[in-house]
Automatic annotation (TrEMBL):
<dbReference type="InterPro" id="IPR013320">
    <property type="entry name" value="ConA-like_dom_sf"/>
</dbReference>
<feature type="compositionally biased region" description="Low complexity">
    <location>
        <begin position="60"/>
        <end position="71"/>
    </location>
</feature>
<dbReference type="GO" id="GO:0046872">
    <property type="term" value="F:metal ion binding"/>
</dbReference>
<feature type="domain" description="Pentraxin (PTX)">
    <location>
        <begin position="278"/>
        <end position="480"/>
    </location>
</feature>
<keyword id="KW-1015">Disulfide bond</keyword>
<keyword id="KW-0106">Calcium</keyword>
<keyword id="KW-0479">Metal-binding</keyword>
<feature type="region of interest" description="Disordered">
    <location>
        <begin position="26"/>
        <end position="71"/>
    </location>
</feature>
<keyword id="KW-0325">Glycoprotein</keyword>
<dbReference type="Pfam" id="PF00354">
    <property type="entry name" value="Pentaxin"/>
</dbReference>
<protein>
    <submittedName>
        <fullName>Neuronal pentraxin receptor</fullName>
    </submittedName>
</protein>
<feature type="compositionally biased region" description="Low complexity">
    <location>
        <begin position="26"/>
        <end position="53"/>
    </location>
</feature>
<keyword id="KW-0675">Receptor</keyword>
<keyword id="KW-0732">Signal</keyword>
<dbReference type="InterPro" id="IPR001759">
    <property type="entry name" value="PTX_dom"/>
</dbReference>
<dbReference type="InterPro" id="IPR051360">
    <property type="entry name" value="Neuronal_Pentraxin_Related"/>
</dbReference>
<feature type="signal peptide">
    <location>
        <begin position="1"/>
        <end position="24"/>
    </location>
</feature>
Length: 486
């Protein structure tokens, strides 16, 4: 280490003193006086301490811009400075005249070591700076080469290219300035190329990336997707319901087809009579107040109706009694068909009365139909398929109330009870059907002749809907077959 420092100091001492800038020295003497004092002692040209600091960073006379300046240290004036420069630190330093005492030499040696250490640090900083500049230039040169490799040939050849790695001394001020200009030019060209690159790429036909969809559009798509999913689920439920409904409808159609096949089979065997699905009758053998049959189905509100039945009286000519009565809460006589004693048969609706020209005293089976509509209170009475009488103003504009009780064979004085034996029906009742509209005369005739059988759409004659009480009996019976035997 001492040999290296001695060599550096000898090199610095060989440089003429006139090349260094003027700096102040301790003791109040300026650079000129220090230079003259030094020249009087040393035979060769000497340099001041400020010149030593200026030359310690590089081998040339000037340093790169931005290099830190060395700090000044006080030196002894006159011959002492000359002896300081020629103090033998290694074999390379020439021997000089020894002056002063030992204490002064030790102080000079310490000062010299401190100065040499600062010079060495300054040299290392300058070297690191130069290497960083070289790395920056190489990086910019590589980036420029990559950018120019993707551009047209004409753009690659545009502008002069400087060989920043050419041979030459890095300590030349002209070369340093040239490198700085080259770096600035490279940066300008790279910025310009990066600005022009997107336009050139678009012009080359490369499709631009699709813009990102706005957030509102994403929200709308999610909402529509949710609505679509809900609609799909609703359609799926609808499909299941339709499938279930179609299954039930198919069963009903199959049932009707089976009935038609049975009818065809009967016609093929020569029978013209119709056999209803529930062929039975209700028999009340004696007049009393406890035998009756009750319909187990509630009726809806009716604005018109047709009630048809087969009746056979066994009263002995003293009146048919009450074939049926319908009561609702608050009105016991909502609909009643009654023949009391020797009086004609009557139809009561909401306690309003119309006399019917019907006769059932011969103890034979007779088909009876009663039709009524609330509009103008029109009514019609059929016996054995023939119209026997009609009228109007029977409880006009009064709808039949729902959720009442329908009794066969007894007249109700209260809802479902308080029967009177004098008004009881004696005989047989079959095929009681109820519709919510007035049947046509042709339909009534077809039912009476067993050629156009119909079941009531409000109340059909079915075994499961009719229950007998008090000794009234339910027995199998088909009136159409019985009439066919006659």
């Amino acid at each position: 280490m001492l040999a290296f420092l001695g060599a550096v100091i000898c090199i610095i001492a060989s440089v003429p003193l006139a090349a260094s800038p003027a700096r102040a020295l301790p003791g109040g003497a300026d650079n000129a006086s220090a230079a003259s004092g030094t020249a009087a002692v040393s035979p060769g040209p000497q340099r001041s301490l400020s010149a030593l600091h200026g030359a310690g960073g590089s081998a040339g006379p000037s340093a790169l811009p931005g290099a830190p300046a060395a700090s000044a240290h006080p030196l002894p004036p006159g011959p002492l400075f000359s002896r300081f420069l020629c103090t033998p630190l290694a074999a390379a330093c020439p021997s000089g005249t020894e002056q002063g005492d030992a204490a002064g030499e030790r102080e000079e040696l310490l000062l010299l070591q401190s100065t040499a250490e600062q010079l060495r640090q300054t040299a290392l900083q300058q070297e690191a700076r130069i290497r960083a500049d070289q790395d920056t230039i190489r990086e910019l040169t590589g980036k420029l080469g990559r950018c120019e490799s993707g551009l047209p040939r004409g753009l690659q050849d545009a502008g002069p290219r400087r060989d920043t790695m050419a041979d030459g001394a890095w300590d030349s001020p002209a070369l340093i300035l040239e490198l700085e200009d080259a770096v600035r030019a490279l940066r300008d060209r790279i910025d310009r190329i990066e600005q022009e690159l997107p336009a050139r790429v678009n012009l080359s036909g490369v499709p631009a990336p699709a813009p990102a969809l706005p957030t509102t559009l994403h929200s709308k798509m999610d909402e529509l997707e949710g609505q679509l999913l809900a609609k799909v689920l609703a359609l799926e439920k609808e499909r299941v319901a339709l499938s279930h409904g179609s299954h039930q409808q198919r069963q009903e159609v199959e049932k009707e087809l089976d009935a038609l096949q049975d009818r065809v089979a009967e016609l093929e065997h020569g029978s013209s009579a119709f056999s209803p699905p529930d062929a039975f009758k209700i028999s009340i053998p004696i007049r009393n107040n406890y035998m009756y049959a009750r319909v187990r189905k509630a009726l809806p509100e009716l604005y018109a109706f047709t009630a048809c039945m087969w009746l056979r009286s066994r009263s002995g000519g003293t009146g048919q009694g009450t074939p049926f009565s319908y009561s609702v809460p608050g009105q016991a006589n909502e609909v009643v068909l009654l023949e009391a004693g020797h009086e004609p048969m009557e139809l009561l609706i909401n306690d309003k009365v119309a006399q019917l020209p019907l006769s059932l005293k011969d103890s034979n089976w007779h088909h009876i139909c009663i039709a009524w509509t609330t509009r103008d209170g029109l009514w019609s009475a059929y016996q054995d398929g023939e119209l026997r009488g009609s009228g109007e103003n029977l409880a006009a504009w009064h709808p039949i109330k729902p959720h009442g009780i329908l009794i066969l064979g007894q007249e109700q004085d209260t809802l479902g009870g308080r029967f009177d034996a004098t008004q009881a029906f004696v005989g047989d009742i079959a095929q009681f059907n109820l519709w919510d509209h007035a049947l046509t005369p042709a339909q009534v005739l077809g039912i009476a002749n067993c050629t156009g059988p119909l079941l009531g759409n409000v109340l059909p004659w079915e075994d499961k809907l009719v229950e007998a009480f008090g000794g009234a009996t339910k027995a199998p019976f088909d009136i159409c077959k019985e009439r066919a035997k006659v």
